[in-house]
Amino acid sequence: MTTDIRRAAGTRTFSDVLLSMVGLRRASTEKDLADLRAGTTLQVACSSSTLGTVRMLPIGKGRTVAHTASGYLHLTAGSVAWHNRRTGEDVALRGPFGLSASGQKAPHPKMARFDLVADGAQHVILIPKADVSLVTQVLEAAGR
To answer: Which of 23-27, 37-41, 48-52 has the lowest mean pLDDT?
Structure first.
């Protein structure tokens, strides 16, 4: 990955929201795609319970559930990697890729849940709805 990394349009911090409310900063998917072609690595918020090391959480009576780890998809013109924010673990994703809408509802209205197939393994990811077209285009290009 290059050292030039920036957040994608849908991955917004509190400061980004405030600046866009007063009209100072507006990012767009078109700018994301142009920056991607120019060699910039884009960072997309991505939570997953199946990427990287899966941590099981006890929920009582001997039952466990997979912990949904928050992280980022790092998108470049030819590669896709997932970075765990808490542990710093990096997972390189290899094609062929398949991305399809999940049957389950996302926990936040601005997020979308998808089933991602990468190198034959099935994963569940949550990404911002505003970044769906960007992620789809990068996965199609990287899977070739």
So the answer is: 23-27
Helix (H) or strand (E) holding 31: helix 29-37
Instruction: Identify the helix (H) or strand (E) that includes residue 45.
Output: strand 41-48
62 Ramachandran zone, left/alpha/beta (phi>0; psi -120 to 50): left
pTM metric for this prediction = 0.78
Q: Are strands 90-93 and 97-101 parallel, antiparallel or unpaired?
A: unpaired
pLDDT attached to residue 2: 44
One-letter amino acid identity for 61? K
Give the 3-state secondary structure of residue 66.
Answer: strand
CA-closest candidate to residue 56, choices 70, 69, 66: 66
**Tens digits of per-residue pLDDT, 56-93?**
778 888 887 776 778 888 988 878 888 888 888 888 88
Dihedral angle, C-alpha 13, 19, 22, 23, nearest 10 °? -110
Residue type, 92: A
Say which amino acid occupies 17: V
For 120, residues 6+ apart whose C-beta sits below 8 A from its C-beta are: none
C-alpha span between 135 and 129 (Å, rounded):
10
